[in-house]
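#onboarding

Welcome to the new folks! Below is a worked example of what a typical request in this channel looks like: someone posts a single protein sequence, and someone else replies with the predicted structure as tokens. Don't worry about understanding the tokens yet, we'll cover that in week two.

Example request:
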Amino acid sequence: MISLIGAMTAQITPFKDGKLDEQTYEKLIKRQIDNGIDFIVPVGTTGESATLTHDEHKYCIEIAVATARGTNAKIVAGAGSNATAEAVDLALFAQTHGADAILSVAPYYNKPSQEGLYQHYKAIAGAVEIPVMLYNVPGRSAVDIEASTVQRLFNDVKNITAIKEATGSMERAVELLAENKDLILISGDDSINYPLLANGGQGVISVTSNLLPNMISELVHSALNSDLKRSKEINDELYTINRSLFVESNPIPIKAAMHIAGLMPNLEYRLPLTMPSKSTMDLLEKTISKYNVVGL
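Example response:
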């Protein structure tokens, strides 16, 4: 079973004329791999999974697996849903088609109890053999996977090995690692990547790395190699872009930033997501000019 440690990118999903832009998608994934990213995370929330059809979702996984084949990069496929049976189906597909692990967001909208969350994740993990990473993002899912539930799942289910923690709370990170010393804690909030790594986190799933994979890779690898000084320097350098990429709902700004930087020929979203405001575009143009964005 692989260890989910390192620099990971929450991969965006490019569109062209309302459909998946397969060629650009493959190029963007290759760029991540070429710039030191350890894990590609397709069809998570940043990948607009909520507006993809099931067939599109699965096809994105297949493209990611094929693109990473023969490289050192691994695939952590998004396999989350507010319906447990649907999440199980996605997890099984990901495993069958070569994904190395899955990331499963907390069920959104229906607000299950902690027991419901436990049973949900136990069912998903029980259906596959590859590692499962929990994804806690209460700001978007309206439910919090409490530390006690994480501990219960980690203790009871052998292939639940990690959690992407996106509460933005350092106290929660401390609590999780104090109770589960072998739990792999992954930062899901770019603004606090360094603090989480310095506190014992073992990686990040980054939105910013879509644009600046080389910097996120160095930030993570420096911390994992105990060079916290360099890791903090990079985190500080990224402060402005991290802040700018969340002035509107993710992934609106990051896709716009990729387009501005010339990394994505088309800027398209699916409703209910819409184009960024002019003020956001102006902010992104100004901010991106301060960074050296490597090309495709």
